[in-house]
Structure formats: structure tokens, C-alpha cells
Amino acid sequence: MRTLILFSLFLASLHLQSQVTFTNMSELLQPVSGSYGNLASDMNGDNLDDIVRVTSEGIYIDYQQVDGTFLGAYFAMSIQNLPSWSICAADIDDNGYNDLCLGAGNAVSFVYASDDGSSYTEVAHPEYIFTQRTTFADIDNDGNLDAFANHDVDQCHPYRNVNGELVLDFSLISTLDAGGNYAAIWVDYDNDWDQDLYITSAEEGLPGEMHSASISSIKIMVTVLLPRRVRKPISMTETRVGLPVLRTSTMMVILMHSS
Ligand SMILES: [Ca+2]
Ligand SMILES: [Ca+2]
Ligand SMILES: [Ca+2]
Ligand SMILES: [Ca+2]
Predict the structure, then answer these.
(1) CA of 159 to the centre of ligand 3 (A)
(2) For 135-150, how does the pLDDT look when each residue is reduced to its tens digit (9 = 90+)?
(3) How far is the CA of 102 from the centre of ligand 4 (A)?
(4) Cα–Cα separations (whole angstroms), residue 51 to 37, 47, 121, 160, 257
(5) Shortest-distance ligand to the CA of residue 49
(6) Bridge partners (DSSP) listed for residue 50
(7) Nearest ligand to residue 136 Cα
(8) Which burial class, exposed, middle or buried, applies to 50 when counting CB atoms under 10 A from its CB (0-12, 13-18, 19+)?
């Protein structure tokens, strides 16, 4: 009986230790009125995540300090494409300051930080897209970040990084010429050192898409990596790593053969 009681106390202490509480600390941030899109990202490269909020009147950034407080900054500017559906951040031009991709209901914008991080410039793309999600990834594995925007009613938009600027380029990665694209996840699913893409779909009959990162990366795998280890081919209905049934492409089959 004594052993049972001690074991019960041990389990109770584990339960208490595993409890996590959260405290609302919004008062640490500068006040922002109206609606905004927001994200957490290290915008100034000091390894401390900052808070970004984008309104129609500009960009508010609360820079995290080493003591956990925040230093507020406001960059007044008119934003053409507000991130009503999606926002993400990455250093597109590799100048040490993160830039933004704003996904609106009719277009996307890229917002570039100046080389000293003291100002931002919006580049509004004219092409129509009902944006659902925006992501950054090095799609062609050339060391420069590209972007990918999910299109709710048509084919998704890939943006190629050309000398630090993002240009719409459907040849960057081939996805289904169809709508219903709700979200994108970039992960190296098969551990072969390039990013793979999984697109979730909300359209009936389309279970989602799985794609290799790029044609160039396939060539690299086939010529260099394939001889090291050959994986079991994936079938059209096989489910991997907890994903829903995959819609595979020819490129996908080639990719999963390599490591
Ligand atoms: Ca920071
Ligand atoms: Ca940048
Ligand atoms: Ca790239
Ligand atoms: Ca991969």
C-alpha cells in the first residue's frame, strides 16, 4: 500500500510540473488601433523575436530587448495590399533585416527593409491572386529564398528570387492548375537536403498535393545521391509521416526514390 501511495504522489507531482500557465503581457507592446495583420519574427537580426503589426497606415514593430521588454517603432507608410489573409517574414535580399510578404484577397506585396533597417518599401504585385497563405522557402535550392502564395481559386503563385527581388515565375515549381489551395508546408520530408512542398486543399475531390522542390534538385539527387541509397517507391495512395493521402506527381515519385 505504501508503494502505491508513493507512486500516486509521484504521478501527481509529475502532473503539477507539467502544467503550463500563460500570462497576457500585451501591455509591453506599443498601442496599435484598428485592424492589422501580425506575426512574430526577428526583424533586425539580433536573435530576439520581435512583434510586427501591419495596418493601412504603416508598420509597427516592437523590438524585443534582452530583458524581455520591447522597444516600439512605427514606420509610417501607406500599405496597398494589406495582409488580410496572410503575412510572413524572411530576409529576401540577405541584407540582415527581414522583409515581409503580405497576402491580400486580390494580390500580394513584398515589403523590403532598407539596408540599415530604418525604412521599408512595398512592392505591390499587379497579378490577381486570392491569397490564402504565403510562405518563404528556397524552392530551387540555389541558396536564395523564394516565395510561394496559395491561390484560393486558381493555380498557386511561385516567386523566384532574382538578385534579391521576387518575380512571379510559374516555371519555378509546377503545381496543379486548380483552386482550393488553403495552405502550404515546406519541409524536407525525405531528408535529402532540399525542401519539399505539401499543399492542403479545401476543394472537394482534391486531397492535397505533394511536390518535389525543383527540377534542378531532382537532377542533383539522381546523379549524385541516388547511388548512395535507394528508397522504396511511394505509391499513389500511400500515406507518409501522418499526412493525408498524397496526390503524387511524376516529380514526386522521382524525389522519394532518392535520399
Ligand atoms: Ca529582433
Ligand atoms: Ca532584407
Ligand atoms: Ca531559391
Ligand atoms: Ca527533400
Answers:
(1) 9
(2) 999 999 999 999 999 9
(3) 27
(4) 11, 13, 19, 27, 41
(5) 1
(6) 41
(7) 3
(8) buried
